[in-house]
Amino acid sequence: MNPQQAKLKHEDLTEVVIKAFFDVYNELAGFPEFVLCRAMAIAIRDAALSVDEEVPLPVWFRGHQIVKFKADLIVQSRVIVEVKARPEVDPFNKAQVLHYLKATDLEVGLLLNFGRRPEFSRVIYENARKSPRHVPPANDDSAKPA
Questions:
Q1: At 79, which helix (H) or strand (E)?
Q2: Nearest to 21 by CA among 111, 142, 133
Q3: Which has the closest alpha carbon to 70: 88, 89, 85, 83?
Q4: H helices, E strands: number in the chain
Q5: Which of 35, 34, 39, 13 is nearest to 24 (CA)?
Q6: 9-127 CATH
Q7: Residue 22 in 3-state DSSP?
Q8: Given 3-state DSSP classes, what are the helix, strand and coil percentages for the chain, each rounded to the nearest 5?
Q9: What is the pLDDT of residues 14-40, one digit of tens each?
């Protein structure tokens, strides 16, 4: 197979999300992020995909949950979507998506920016590169907040 024809991981899902992004951008560019997130969730559902909103992503260190991030959207339990409404994407925004991927078993993330012009980035972090998260057993009280 020609390398240029190689299929990207979860390409079928990311194509649908990116199409929804451009549709939402054309209708609602300039609105705040929370409005754009809700619109993206609706557009993704209208495309017959499941989407979860504001999904907590726990970060573990040595068996202790130390923080929870919140992913804007998770599509089909396979792709993290982070929505921004900034003039332009900065390295922190891409790093945020990368950290979300590191904190989960998900490997594909999309950063969608509803800025001066529509921008999107695809972020990949394969599970084979991830360190074990040391999640304690369900009956372990050490992970419960104080």
A1: strand 79-84
A2: 111
A3: 83
A4: 3, 5
A5: 39
A6: 3.40.1350
A7: helix
A8: 35, 30, 35
A9: 999 999 999 999 999 999 999 999 999
